Structure formats: structure tokens, C-alpha cells
């Protein structure tokens, strides 16, 4: 990619700036190493007023904020126009602290970043009701990468993005071996560490094995009971671990879409990885797409993740589902929003003949658009 990598702007930045208003709090959430700190630093550098940047993992920051009094916060931030607290979820009672600052320090805008959605939301939820805006930052989307490379260059990068994912540092690495080492380190030192430490868990091996089982069942409906039996854990414990990994932006679910037919599957979930590079690191498999028996499932994960990133970072209120009936008719991806219903069939290889929607789906939802996204036309959709 050359010695001077292009600058890649972040889609969510405009929303952050739009919501940074006096007496309001913006929560920017996402996995570690996705660029939250860098984005916060960019905002700090471009901000025209006085900006204070605090690292919540620094004990000095915690000591500064520990005295939860109006007097202390006015002394600290009385002249501050923008207060940024990075990795805010590590500070107990951060919600109460920030509420007091927002209430009592006139004119201050507050930006909090955090790598655990649930922890940060729980810490700030009730205290900041009506005062906060929740935003999310994911690894680079293909939409964002268009700002740095041409369509021709991005098409050449496609298999790299599928195999190694889109964490910012991975995107700019030249050598595959460096990417593999980095992804394994991210998984071990950040993602799993966050899940374990923030939730006071000790079952490192079982958490990793659970992720491996989910990685092998990519694109399939998952039985919590079967996972529990395999791991020697209760169904409830498996469910809790999966929710915690969802919270830490490691995995996310799609539920079954059901509106018109009694035979539609609605209770099951399929689980996907927020970054395909992390998924491949979990199973230690970075083989080229043409040598992979899981190429179809990996493509499905990649496309669904890209669509999710686009919708979330552009603040679109779009819900994502899969569709299946008990007689095995299915659609890989359903999107529903105010513009209507869209259905997508996801095929890594160019289909040899025209793909039509399942008959049951076409009859139940005649108004739905139906598209096939494959390895040749993906640029139109991602």
C-alpha cells in the first residue's frame, strides 16, 4: 500500500460533532483498537474552544474525578468547553460524575469513549437520561475505505478484508504474517480481556472454546443447550457469555423475521462476528477463499457485518434479520426500515443462473425488494 497510507475519515464523526452541545454527553462505543481514541484526538485538535482530554485508565484521572462535588468539578472544568474522557467505562460511578459535571459546569460539552457497550451504558444510563447520545464506532467499513482508495484498488483488497478484517492497523499492514500476529494479540489482550475483567469472569478457556464453536457454526442457527452440553456449562451461562461478547463488540446476533406466516422461524438466532479477521484468528485459519470450505459462510458474515456498520455509523434505524421457514425455505439477510423491506441472498461465487426469492417469501412479502450480492457485484451494496 506504499509508505504513505491514505487518511480514512470516520463516518460517525459528523454525528459526534453534531451532538456535542453544551450540557450534553456523547457516548462513543466500540471495540478496542477500532480508532475511538484517534477520533477523539482529531476532535480535540479541531475544536476551537478549550478542550481537556482525560484517559480514564490513568490513575491521575480517577483521582481528579474522585471528589464528586460541585466545587471540585467547577474548579477543574469551569473554563472547559469540551471534556473528553477516553475509556470511561473503567471508572466506577462515571455516570453520576458526568451528570454532575453536565448539570453544574455551564457550557461544557462531554464526549465519553468506551469499549464495553453494556458497562458504559449501565454506568451512564439512568443518571444521563435525556442528556446523552449513543454512537458506535466499528472497524473500517468498505464505505469509509472508499475515501482512501479507488474502486479498482478496493476490489483488489476484497479478499484481504474478508480474511483479515478491517481493524485500522490491520488495513495498513503490508505483510499477512504481521496481520495474523496482530489479530491474535487483539483477541487475547483486548477483546477477551475486556469481557473477563469488566465482568469479573475467570473461565478464559471456556470463553475461547465458546467463540471457536460459534466460529465453526457461522451462518447457522445456534442451540444454546447444545453449546452448553459441549462446554459443560448451563444454557443460562452460555447465554450470559454470548451477551457479554456481544456487549464487547466481538459477536452480534440476527433474529428470525416473522410477520405473515405461522411456519416462519422467529425464536432462533444466528450469530456473526463483528470482524471477520477476528473470526479467522479464533480458528487459526487464514487460507485463501478458493481453498476454504467455509467461503460461503465467511462471505455471508462479511456482507452482513458491512451492512450493519453502514447502517449504525450513518445512524439509520434499520433492523437486520434472517428469514427461514420450518420447511427450510430461507433468505440470508432481511433489512427493514421506513423505506420498506429488502431481502438479500449472499453468494461468494457468481451464480450460474438467476436466483429468485423463495416462493414462500415472495408470496408473503410481494412488496419486498430482492437482491443477490456476490463476489462480482458487491461494490454496489457495500
From TrEMBL:
Domain AAA+ ATPase span(s) in chain numbering: 22-201
SMART domains: AAA (SM00382)
Superkingdom of this protein's organism: Bacteria
Pfam families in the record: AAA_14, DUF4143
Protein name: AAA+ ATPase domain-containing protein
InterPro entries, per database record: AAA+_ATPase, AAA_14, DUF4143, P-loop_NTPase
Amino acid at each position: 500500500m506504499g509508505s504513505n497510507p491514505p487518511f480514512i475519515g470516520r463516518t460517525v464523526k459528523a454525528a459526534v460533532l453534531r451532538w456535542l452541545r453544551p450540557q450534553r454527553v456523547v457516548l462513543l462505543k466500540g471495540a478496542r483498537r477500532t480508532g475511538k481514541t484517534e477520533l477523539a484526538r482529531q476532535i480535540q485538535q479541531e475544536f476551537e474552544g478549550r478542550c481537556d482530554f482525560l484517559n480514564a485508565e490513568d490513575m491521575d484521572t480517577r483521582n481528579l474525578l474522585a471528589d464528586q462535588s460541585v466545587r471540585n468539578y467547577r474548579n477543574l472544568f469551569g473554563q472547559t468547553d469540551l471534556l473528553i474522557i477516553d475509556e470511561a467505562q473503567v471508572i466506577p460511578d462515571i455516570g453520576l460524575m458526568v451528570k454532575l459535571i453536565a448539570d453544574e459546569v455551564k457550557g461544557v460539552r462531554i464526549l465519553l469513549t468506551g469499549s464495553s457497550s453494556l458497562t458504559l451504558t449501565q454506568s451512564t444510563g439512568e443518571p444521563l437520561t435525556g442528556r446523552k447520545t449513543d454512537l458506535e464506532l466499528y472497524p473500517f467499513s468498505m464505505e469509509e475505505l472508499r475515501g482512501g482508495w479507488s474502486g479498482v484498488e478496493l476490489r483488489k483488497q476484497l479478499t484481504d478484508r474478508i480474511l483479515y478484517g478491517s481493524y485500522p492497523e490491520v488495513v495498513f499492514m503490508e505483510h499477512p504474517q504481521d496481520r495474523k500476529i496482530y489479530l491474535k494479540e487483539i483477541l487475547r489482550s483486548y477483546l477477551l480481556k475486556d469481557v473477563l475483567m469488566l465482568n469479573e469472569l475467570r473461565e478464559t478457556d471456556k470463553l475461547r472454546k465458546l467463540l471457536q464453536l460459534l466460529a465453526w457454526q457461522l451462518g447457522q442457527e445456534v442451540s444454546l443447550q447444545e453449546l452448553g452440553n459441549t462446554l459443560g456449562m448451563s444454557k443460562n451461562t452460555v447465554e450470559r457469555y454470548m451477551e457479554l461478547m456481544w456487549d464487547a463488540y466481538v459477536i452480534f446476533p440476527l433474529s428470525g423475521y416473522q410477520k405473515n406466516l405461522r411456519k416462519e422461524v422467529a425464536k432462533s438466532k444466528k450469530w456473526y462476528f463483528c470482524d471477520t479477521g477476528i473470526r479467522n484468528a479464533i480458528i487459526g485459519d487464514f487460507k485463501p477463499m478458493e481453498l476454504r470450505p467455509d467461503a460461503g459462510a465467511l462471505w455471508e458474515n462479511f456482507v452482513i457485518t458491512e451492512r450493519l456498520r453502514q447502517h449504525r455509523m450513518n445512524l439509520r434505524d434499520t433492523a437486520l434479520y434472517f428469514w427461514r421457514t420450518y420447511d427450510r425455505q430461507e433468505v440470508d439477510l432481511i433489512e427493514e426500515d421506513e423505506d420498506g423491506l429488502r431481502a438479500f441472498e449472499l453468494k461468494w461465487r457468481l451464480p450460474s443462473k438467476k436466483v429468485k426469492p423463495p416462493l414462500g417469501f415472495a408470496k408473503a412479502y410481494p412488496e419486498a425488494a430482492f437482491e443477490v450480492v456476490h463476489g462480482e457485484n458487491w461494490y454496489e451494496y457495500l
